Amino acid sequence: MSEQTSKPILAIRDLKAGYGGGRMIVNGVDINVGAGEIVCVIGQNGAGKSTLLKGIVNLIQLRQGTVQLDGKDVTDLPAQKLLLEGLAYIPQGRSIFPRLTVAENIRMGGYLIKDRAVLKRRHEEMEAMFPALAELRGLQASSLSGGQQRQLELARTLMMDPKVLMLDEPSIGLAPRIVDQVFTVLRDLAKLGKAVLMVEQNVRKALAAADRGYVLELGKVRLEDRAQALLDDERVAQLYMGMRPTAA
Amino acid sequence: MLAFAEQGMNGLMMGAIYALFALGMVLIYGVMHVLNFSHGVLFMAGAYVCQVIFAQLTGNYFVAILGSMLVLALVGCLLEKGIFQHLRGSLSMQIVASMGLIMIVQNGIIYFFGPLALHMRVETVESKIRLGPLSFTAQHFVIIGVTLVAVVALDLFLRHTRLGTALRATSQNLEAARVVGINPDSIFLMTFALATALAALAGALLGPLFLISPAMGDLPLLKGLTAIVLGGMGSVPGAIIGGFVIGILEAQATLVLPTDYRDAVVFAALIGILLFRPYGLFGKRERGEP
């Protein structure tokens, strides 16, 4: 039903993940993300959205299934190796280093880059891409606004020039205007060929920015379609966007 | 006035020891969020190792200090790998383990070296330096000088190197550190090694001036703890200043009170801080904290 990209850059098969106690929070999920594509996973609280991302980057103890990155099986690689392979992840909430400067935060994104010249060049590229951050480079990161902190997380993550960028609720805690800016940046990144996989509560704006979407319920994929089709879907509208049933 | 200056110098010297001591504790607390109560016996063990290398092996105090720091750094790695790594996530277990270490190390030292105090006769304790009408051992100046060098070196390491920045990053946001590819386990190991080396340095510096005994780390532990509370738990500059403030405070207190009340003055100051400024002189009240 959804138009499948010819060859996904990130392919998740039958992923199960949980925190123990006999219950899997994510219970057999298949997801594909193509290069240059933004894929959004929506679902209610507790549907397993954050656990899904943590499961993909191997930051959770209990997991099964396979993760393929650019045709290579990376299921058992630790998060650090995944980063080197080109899979980056931004956790939910503020993941900056609050008492490092803006510049130090960005450079920490390149922690795994051993070549100083490359590190310096990437840092300059990031400051060119996010001019607002360049002006604030000497400030403590905690003094930045919410939107600037989100930019800082993006800049830090892009230091590794990842193929796939995964974000856990990039819009959380931001003013509506800033949310639009963040999604614009994500669209720009997709234009550059990056694959973006995000989970979101802000269903309307996230789907508007995305190419395709998945609806996650109780750890399983219930619906999968083009983002526009999901936006037009009455069930999605009722369940996740607070719309009343039209015929009621 | 003369007595004031003399006690000022003594206070600076003890303050330097407390600052080194507190630095190690604050590093561990800042990065791993655990108060390592065994820091005092590691300080004591550092003095013993220094004494052995100096008196029985080389006769060179400088080599003995470096050797003692190296040995204790290794001990720190073993403690982290063998004990604390496995207790991560349980604060109370870590505290119990560090209490247990106090008994093991203290009694281990008594077993091997006996309960009597050891001397360590280094040249810098025998030779005096005159400052006008006052005279101090050269060791006073060695302690203050070495401490300043150590503090500057640590500051350069923490602020201007990749690993030092990673250490600070890990202490501020563990999850984000993992996400950028830092391996927290190796940062924890490095922190422990650094902290125990600083404890050894403090022990090796103070050892020759006083006696080296199994209980020599007990009071510095309480003073070091006071220093980091004073400095605002987790603040590195706070720990340094806290250490010096306590050293100078207790030295000056002997001018107005009987010497026996020296420690009481320090702990009264601690109680005062806890009552009126519980987040310390330099700590910031974090959002959400009372």
Give a written overview of the molecule.
The complex is a heterodimer of chains A (248) and B (290). Chain A is α/β, with parallel strands linked by helices and 248 residues long. Helices cover 37% and strands 24% of the residues of chain A. Chain A is built from ten helices and ten strands. The two termini of chain A are 28 Å apart. Chain B is mainly alpha-helical and 290 residues long. Chain B has a domain at 21-219. Chain B has a two-stranded antiparallel ribbon with strand order 1-2. The termini of chain B are far apart. Chain A: GO terms for molecular function: ATP binding; ATP hydrolysis activity; branched-chain amino acid transmembrane transporter activity.
Strand % of chain B is under 5%
Please identify, by name, the CATH architecture of the domain at 10-93 and 162-240 in chain A.
3-Layer(aba) Sandwich
Mean pLDDT of chain A: 89
Please mark out the parts of chain B with pLDDT under 50 across 5 or more consecutive residues, or reply none: none
Strand content of chain A: 15-25%
Report the C-alpha radius of gyration of chain B, rounded: 19 Å
Contiguous helical run count of chain B: 12
Major β-sheet annotation of chain A: 6 strands, mixed
By secondary-structure content and strand pairing, the structural class of chain B works out as mainly alpha
Residues in helices of chain A, as a percent range? 25-40%
Topology overview:
The complex is a heterodimer of chains A (248) and B (290).
Chain A: E1 10-18, E2 26-33, E3 38-42, H1 49-56, E4 62-69, E5 72-73, H2 79-85, E6 87-90, H3 102-109, H4 116-129, H5 131-135, H6 146-158, E7 164-168, H7 176-191, E8 195-200, H8 203-209, E9 212-217, E10 220-226, H9 227-232, H10 234-240
Parallel strand pairs in A: 3-8, 3-9, 6-7, 7-8
Antiparallel strand pairs in A: 1-2, 1-4, 4-5, 9-10
Chain B: H1 2-32, H2 39-58, H3 61-82, H4 91-113, H5 123-126, E1 128-131, E2 134-137, H6 138-160, H7 162-172, H8 174-179, H9 184-206, H10 218-231, H11 236-256, H12 262-276
Antiparallel strand pairs in B: 1-2
Helix pairs in contact in B: 1-6, 1-9, 1-10, 1-11, 2-3, 2-4, 2-9, 3-9, 6-7, 7-9, 10-11, 10-12, 11-12
Keywords (chain B): Amino-acid transport, Cell membrane, Membrane, Transmembrane, Transmembrane helix, Transport
Family (chain B): Belongs to the binding-protein-dependent transport system permease family. LivHM subfamily.
Subcellular location (chain B): Cell membrane
